[in-house]
Amino acid sequence: MKRYQALAEELTRSIRSGLLKPGDRLPSVRHASASRGISPATVFEAYYLLEARGLVQARPRSGYYVSPMPPPALPAEPETASQPDGQSRPVEISERVFQVLESTMHRDVVPLGSAFPSPLHFPLDKLGRALAASATTLDPWSTVDDLTPGNADLRRQIALRYLIDGVQVDPREIVVSNGALEALNLCLSALTRPGDTVVVESPCFYAALQALEQQGLHALEVATDPREGIDLAALETAIERHRPAACWLMTNFQNPLGSAMAADKKRALVELLARSRLPLIEDDVYAELYFGARPVPTRAFDRDGWVLHCSSFSKSLAPGYRIGWVSSPRFARQLARQKLVSTLATCVPAQAALARYLERGTYDRHLQHLRRQLQLSQGQYTDAIARHFPAGTRVSRPGGGYFLWLELPGGIDTLALQRRAADAGISLAPGPIFSASRGFRHCLRLNYGHPFDARAEAALKTLGQWLAE
Questions:
Q1: What's the pLDDT tens digit per position in 169-210?
Q2: Peptide bond into 27 cis (omega under 30)
Q3: What is the pLDDT of residues 325-351, one digit of tens each?
Q4: Paired residues of 223 in beta bridges
Q5: How would you label 86-106 residue by residue, b for 16+ Cβ within 10 Å and e otherwise?
Q6: Nearest Cα to 114, choosing from 429, 396, 456, 412?
Q7: In 40-165, alpha helices (H)
Q8: The predicted structure's pLDDT at residue 1
Q9: What is the CA radius of gyration of the chain?
Q10: Using CA atoms, how far apart are residues 22 and 67, in angstroms rounded to an integer?
């Protein structure tokens, strides 16, 4: 547990026990920092978390105070790792995923099942000005010079983002893609052949399963803890038994669980893969959306080049621009060739616009605001679930991203629930679309990346009433 989380949990217990009463003022940030020997930033993170949970309120120029009516006790978290059967199997999931996604593609639907955060969170006006400015000054030869690897200025800016994590990346080993999904598909194409087996988490992002299905690959689901990520002992056993061609993992705020691997576990993962000479396709699109300490990418521990690190700006800055990338010193040439024979290039004006925006240095300020909004929304959605959903519901507490994973009590069938909700204008993402073996029938993934409003409150209340039936 991080320091800010420990402080937040201590204060939560004091509030719920009545030691701190409604209206009481919390210690000032300066006092809490000095008395506990922690940084002011750590205290702020703890207070932000309490505010997101609805336990405290900030008053301008006054400090933080216990909320007048603290919310009900939060639901318990999911406790145990998944237990897949250990079999490698072909994937047949796309039709079910399409049926679910069709119910999310309308703005009048309550987007609890959406895979995207609200577009209102992003500086689209500033990006638009950057796009207009870069388009008028675009070098005509850039459409040729940066054809397949991508815009040189953008790749340099991406390499500078890696430096924040202490990772030295040569811009020449970065291939810009049409979103992270293309980057991930390029990796699969470079590393596998039809019929090969690829390790995935259990549950895992449905787009990973769709990609395996499209390329004729088999999925090998490995037990995954809802807080700590994939089980390394189970992974080692799976590697020995099945000799997979690659792994596709999300080590930071995994979709759908929200789990995050600790740094020492990431190091152990990289060592295991290096011994096995097994490539890791690291799907890291949520890494910038952390609420506490910045997570380190698995790539930071890679000394032998077995990690292919994929990310994008779609979740953190520019949805709709479809700019992603993959970084890999060992496989950069194969990835560039795959890009050349598939989509050839990525939109040149969009790349130039993002490079221009990043050069101005306002990205981190935007990210700070975005993280605060998402953390606040997480607390609001979790509190609403506590009010409306039946006893026995378990809800994850991710330290970043914008998804909650719910385990529902009783013999609840979330596929049936999703169909009923769709008819009522509520989108849901049922558990079976996150599994090649169609498990997790009693589970839901819920998106809190949209502001909590009256529609979201009413939708959760309606779902809770149906579940109570």
A1: 999 999 999 999 999 999 999 999 999 999 999 999 999 999
A2: no
A3: 999 999 999 999 999 999 989 999 999
A4: 202
A5: eebeebebbebbeebbebbee
A6: 429
A7: 40-52, 94-102, 124-136, 142-145, 152-164
A8: 65
A9: 22
A10: 5
Residue 75 CB contacts under 8 Å (≥ 6 apart), including other chains: 382, 385, 386, 389, 393, 394, 395
Specify whether the CB–CB gap between 8 and 48 falls below 8 A: no
CB-count burial class (<10 Å; 0-12, 13-18, 19+) for 233:
exposed
User: CA distances (Å), 135 to each of 8, 217, 370, in order?
Assistant: 47, 41, 27
- Rounded to whole angstroms, the Cα distance separating 28 from 31 reads 5
> For position 287, what pLDDT does the model report?
96
411-453 pLDDT, tens digit each = 899 999 999 999 999 999 999 999 999 889 999 999 999 999 9
Query: How confident is the model at residue 27, as a pLDDT?
Result: 92
Q: How far is residue 292 from each of residues 18, 288, 289, measured CA to CA in Å?
A: 27, 11, 10
Helix (H) or strand (E) holding 57: strand 56-59
CB-facing half-sphere around the CA of 422: CA atoms within 13 A? 19
| Contact call for residues 22 and 70 (beta carbons, < 8 A) | yes
- Residue numbers in the chain where pLDDT is lower than 50: none
- Cβ 302 vs Cβ 332: under 8 Å: no
Tokens representing residue 47 in the block = 């207070």
Collapsing DSSP states into helix, strand and coil, what is residue 102?
helix
Contact 191, 352 (CB under 8 A): no
Across all residues in the chain, what is the average pLDDT? Answer: 92
Phi/psi at 63 (5° precision):
125, -160
Report pLDDT for 64: 93
The residue among 421, 464, 393 whose CA lies nearest residue 111 is 421
State the pLDDT at residue 256: 97
Task: Write the Ramachandran bin of 295: left for phi over 0, alpha for psi from -120 to 50, otherwise beta.
Answer: beta
Assign residue 437 a region (left: φ > 0; alpha: ψ between -120 and 50; beta: otherwise). Answer: alpha
